[in-house]
Specification:
It contains 16 helices and 12 strands. Helix content is 47%, strand content 13%.
Length: 406
């Protein structure tokens, strides 16, 4: 038996295990938990008012696996055999090492990181030693660029030369017992526009060249819809709810988010029949009421830089948002900064921060949420870092089980 076949067999047994069945039972529509990227984003099946503990999940940055497993990040993104081997390896390591609620599924995503959408539109992508895929430094559009109204993705060099062969190889290795996911378009209009125009350039455009900024946003929104339609035809799969990943929405004011981006995001949500996961880097606190006005979102990310989750959660019930009853609200993924609240914190400090999150959820009437450690990288030394994360999972559960955690 080859190493890949052995890993697939071992992984499949864990998928069929009693422990994995326990984890899967915690989630609503668990088949959607693995989608455009390798990390799990799930919606809890039960509400907190049911008395059930809310799920706890733990993730690491890929550089963790460089230290712990000796993984070569560049090969992970360029060599499909190697990518599959290490995807299976680190997923199984996490499953066995952390007693969290992240399940395994037979879904294997082909993902090229933040560069995927911009790469299809012609942005240079660099595969460098020890790093995730990076953008070339020069923007590819300016106010004089001719932005096509239609893109023929069947002839797209990025797809034809890299993504399609990569997917085909992983699919042939995995066999019929697994679903290998062809890359989704999962960046929102803001993120893609920033990447192909440049952060500073696009921010200035919004103020001094609004017509061009809107033309660029229309271009990337239409490109996302066209790609989704092409992908559905190419794979034979129906359109499904999208994801909307943004790169630091808080760089713009809440008013600018509402004026420039929100309606385009709603257009994509309507086109796909929903949005599974809405994400932005940065502290989203001031923007939550505007994001909540989007219709059709299943899960909203409250990221690690939103230190005071209570302030952000207040925006879930802001005046004018869709769905007045808490049971109709999207679920919230409450991400904890690993460095500050795990690796550099005492156990009591870790527990008190989780208590503060639980108090905030109760005060804001948020019924469905996930407590998640996110972004852990190397600080204490790979093995010690993983030990600290495993211990945090236990502490987060202990706090939820307290009779009066607040």
């Amino acid at each position: 038996m080859s190493d890949i076949n052995r890993l697939l067999d071992e992984y499949g047994k864990l998928c069929d295990s009693a422990e994995n069945a326990r984890r899967l039972a915690l989630w609503d529509r668990p088949e959607r938990g693995i989608r455009a990227e390798t990390q799990w984003h799930g919606v809890p099946r039960h509400a907190a008012s049911s008395g059930a503990l809310m799920p706890v999940t733990a993730e690491c940055l890929e550089k963790m696996w460089v230290s712990v497993l000796g993984m070569d990040i560049r090969r992970f993104y360029t060599d499909p055999d190697y990518s599959l081997e290490y995807f299976l390896t680190y997923k199984m390591l996490k499953f066995r090492r952390f007693r969290d609620d992240t399940p395994l599924t037979r879904d294997i995503p082909v993902c090229f990181g933040v560069t995927h959408e911009a790469g299809m539109l012609g942005q240079k992508v660099l595969f460098m030693e020890g790093e995730e895929p990076q953008f070339g430094k020069d923007p590819i559009v300016d106010e004089d660029s001719v932005l096509p109204s239609r893109i023929d993705f069947s002839r797209n060099p990025y797809l034809v030369d890299m993504a399609i062969p990569f997917h085909r190889r992983v699919k042939s290795l995995a066999g019929s017992g697994f679903r290998v996911i062809f890359p989704h378009w999962y960046r929102g209009p803001q993120g893609v526009a920033l990447y192909i125009r440049g952060f500073q350039n696009f921010a200035v455009d919004m103020y001094v060249n609004e017509d061009f900024a809107r033309r660029l946003l229309r271009y990337v929104t239409d490109a996302g819809k066209q790609y989704a339609a092409w992908r559905a035809e190419f794979t034979g799969e129906a359109l499904e709810p999208c994801d909307l990943f943004n790169d630091d929405i808080p760089l713009m004011s809440p008013d600018n988010y509402a004026e420039f981006f929100r309606e385009l995001e709603q257009e994509l949500i309507d086109f796909h029949g929903g949005c599974w996961y809405w994400h932005s880097c940065g502290d989203l606190t001031r923007h939550v009421p505007e994001v909540r006005r989007l219709r059709g979102i299943s899960l909203i990310d409250f990221g690690v830089t939103m230190e005071d989750k209570a302030e952000g959660l207040k925006g879930m019930s802001a005046d004018g948002v869709d769905g007045a009853a808490p049971e109709s609200w999207p679920a919230v993924e409450l991400r904890v900064m690993a460095k500050r609240h795990i690796q550099e914190a005492s156990e009591e400090e870790q527990k008190e921060y989780v208590r503060s999150i639980l108090r905030a959820c109760r005060a804001s009437r948020v019924e469905r949420y996930v407590i998640r450690s996110s972004g852990m990288s190397i600080l204490l030394g790979g093995e010690r870092d993983l030990d600290s994360l495993a211990r945090w999972v236990d502490l987060a559960r202990e706090v939820q089980a307290e009779k009066d955690p607040g």
